[in-house]
Amino acid sequence: MPILDLQSRFGINMDQWVLIQSGSQPNKRAARCHAFEKEWIECAHGIGQTRAKKECQLEFEDFYECMHRQKTLQRLYAIRVQRDKMVKEGTYTPPQHKPNESL
């Protein structure tokens, strides 16, 4: 316990400003990646930065993927490349788009 607990004394929560996903959200719903960030913080809490980099790598990767969507975008790009290749070879024809079709 800290000698001076300023957060509770002044009634402020520094964690909301320090953590990316913990701030107040519209409609009081949790942010998209809040669960991943929470898992990463809980894993890394109290073990030090050096150990946390090794032991919490999976949690950090999940959080990073949720924030930046790099693996998802790479996968979508590979799917588009494969589709374009199949269209060029003539083995796949994309469905026709009907712009004014009512539901």
Describe, in plain words, how this protein is organized in 3D:
By secondary structure, this protein is mainly alpha-helical. The chain has six helices and no strands. The longest helix has 20 residues, at 70-89. The N and C termini lie far apart (62 Å).
Question: Spans with pLDDT under 50 lasting ≥5 residues?
Answer: none
The run of helices and strands is: HHHHHH
CA-CA gap between termini: 62 Å
User: What structural class do helix, strand and pairing data support?
Assistant: mainly alpha
Mean pLDDT rating: 82
The shape is elongated
Percent of residues in β-strands: under 5%
Extended strand count = 0
Number of helices: 6
What is Rg?
Answer: 23 Å
Helical proportion? 55-70%
The largest β sheet comes out as:
none
Structural key phrases:
mainly alpha, single chain, 6 helices, 103 residues, elongated
Q: How is this fold's topology laid out?
A:
Blueprint: H1 6-10, H2 15-18, H3 34-44, H4 49-55, H5 57-68, H6 70-89
